[in-house]
Amino acid sequence: MSRLVVASNRVADLSVAKQSGGLAVAVGEALRQRGGVWFGWSGDVVEDGEPDVPTTTSLDNVTTVTVPLSRSEFENYYHGFANRTLWPVCHYRLDLAEFSNEFLESYRHTNARFAAEIEKLLLPDDILWIHDFHLIPLGSELRKRGVTQRIGFFLHIPFPPIEILTATPEHEWLIDSIFAYDLVGFQTQTDLNNFKRYLLQLGNTTFLPLDRLICGDRELTAGVFPVGIDADHFAEVAHSPESDRIVESMKVRDPGLALIIGVDRLDYSKGLPERVRAFERLLELHPEWRNAASLMQVAQPTREDVDAYVDIREELERLTGAINGRYGNFDWTPVRYINRSVERDRLAAIFRASRIGLVTPVRDGMNLVAKEYVVAQDPDDPGVLVLSKFAGAAETLTEALIVNPFDTDEVAEALHAALIMHQSERKHRNYALRTKINNFDVFKWQKDFLTALEHSRASYLIPERTA
Ligand code: GDG
């Protein structure tokens, strides 16, 4: 079995990976099985001109190598092209996207710098797995350095439709760089179709069966690999003695209250203002839920240096204040807004105690919270998942109540339907969803991707080494 080299924006601490979530566990497991290296940003920023030496730590047969970003890389590569250009473009938000040559140059340059670091770590039989939008051109930078090993790339966020992508300056360069990979994986069929439609319209790709694509002298296999969760572990945590205690104390504190839970990074892609408005609409359309249902929204702060994130936070605080002022009383707070991170174990217990998991992003690659909510439920008396049709998860989790997050009345009615849903229907839906989530967990995702990578045709022709 080949050794594995993983590159992603951040690297998990493998000694506590269970707390970081399923993705870190699954990647960590693959690394432990095969032996290998995990490369990424350390999270540190050094002033321009200061040394940016890598930090290396080893645990058994796995080495993590992290590098700091310089101040200008942090501003222009990370907060610039990654967070201010690619993130909004890939979430269909051209209105929020900022384009600048400085961002683009820094993105190219930082990926080239990472490639130089990674090349030093490689052995001839390694396979490489590169993750996400921060590192799209990393593969082509490695190829420029003469790297011939198999390289796979997985995009965790949506691949936008051609009409949006072509508004991004240098989109041809960006998409062309994807052909440096032997395998590219997307979360959903919609994303893969968007990718293929882009290639079809640009006209320089040959389409072969089984999503093999040829462009110039390069061949790429494309596929759909919907990311999963560590379902067994999450269910176990949700039913631990500590969770029993948390669930019990929540019942004692608010007897009879129907809790609706939302958990997201505070990001404009997650549809948080739309969600609060839909809950308010529920209280208008079905007043029987006043004093009887509350929305608890955990919104972990993220990317607070970017203006669009400051705006979304202010909007959410304004909306929450308005609804609580309008409907709340001494005994009941309609919306409980928690603007900080909550420990993973506590989250699992809160999911279990909630009658509805409300997951309504306006665009999302997959959305793991939807899957976590389902497996945290008591199978004999489960809550209901209300899920946006614009989350990648909706492509498979069809037994959820699927809604359009922009349609306030539709979401409000789905909430009402979920709150009054008979136990037998809840059990039936939860069983179907849980089965899918268990069968396609994060370990299967990891194995499927790596198997496909090993079987992909490594037909990349080495270009002349460009120093
Ligand atoms: C990207 C894509 C894709 C959230 N708040 C807290 C907390 N969380 C955990 C959740 C979940 C994870 O963070 C969030 O995962 P999502 O999938 O929901 O969303 P993104 O962070 O946007 O992830 C997404 C994913 O990559 C994987 O490919 O699904 O579409 O955007 O596990 O539980 N965890 C803790 N405290 C919090 O307050 N401990």
UniProtKB/TrEMBL annotation:
The keyword Plastid does not apply. The keyword Chaperone does not apply. It is an enzyme of class 2 (transferase). Belongs to the glycosyltransferase 20 family. It comes from the Bacteria. Gene3D superfamilies: Glycogen Phosphorylase B. Pfam families: Glyco_transf_20. This is Trehalose-6-phosphate synthase. One of its GO terms (molecular function) is alpha,alpha-trehalose-phosphate synthase (UDP-forming) activity. Keywords: Glycosyltransferase, Transferase. CDD domains: GT20_TPS. Its EC number is 2.4.1.15. One of its GO terms (biological process) is trehalose biosynthetic process.
